[in-house]
């Protein structure tokens, strides 16, 4: 599971054997969230949240949005077109 970005103590990963559409998992010490990348539009959307606070989710969306081009490129390298 390649870590493609770090946000503080959180790891942003793309699983090599995962499904489409393009998305990332944000993994913390005790929590995880999944975000769709929407690579064509570039609008990051929360799909699932397992324990993060609303404040933490907003911080993640901002960080992922800032890096969405790199994240989409990483998805494409691992999986092909999003």
Task: Describe this protein's structure.
The two termini are 18 Å apart. The protein has one domain (3-79). The chain has a five-stranded antiparallel beta sheet, covered by helices on one side. By secondary structure, the protein is α+β, with helices and mostly antiparallel strands. The chain has helices at 54-66, 68-79, and strands at residues 3-7, 10-13, 23-27, 32-36, 45-50. The chain has two helices and five strands, in the order E-E-E-E-E-H-H. 21% of the residues are buried. The protein is globular. Strand 3 and strand 4 (32-36) form a beta hairpin. The longest helix is centred in the last third of the chain and has 13 residues, at 54-66.
From the structure above, extract its key features:
single chain; 82 residues; alpha+beta; five-stranded antiparallel β-sheet; 2 helices
Summarize the structure.
The chain is an alpha+beta fold.
Strand order of the largest sheet: 1-2-3-4-5
Tally of extended strands?
A: 5
Report the uncertain regions: none
Kindly provide the radius of gyration, computed on alpha-carbon positions and rounded to a whole number of angstroms: 11 Å
Order of helices and strands: EEEEEHH
Reconstruct the topology from this structure.
Layout: E1 3-7, E2 10-13, E3 23-27, E4 32-36, E5 45-50, H1 54-66, H2 68-79
Antiparallel strand pairs: 1-2, 2-3, 3-4, 4-5
């Amino acid at each position: 599971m390649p870590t493609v970005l770090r946000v503080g103590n959180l790891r942003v990963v793309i699983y090599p054997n995962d499904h489409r559409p393009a998305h990332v998992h944000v993994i913390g010490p005790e929590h995880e969230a999944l975000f769709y990348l929407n690579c064509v539009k570039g609008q990051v959307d929360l799909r699932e949240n397992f324990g993060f606070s609303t404040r933490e989710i907003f911080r993640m969306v901002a960080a992922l949005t800032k890096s969405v081009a790199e994240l989409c490129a990483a998805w494409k390298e691992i999986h092909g077109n999003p």
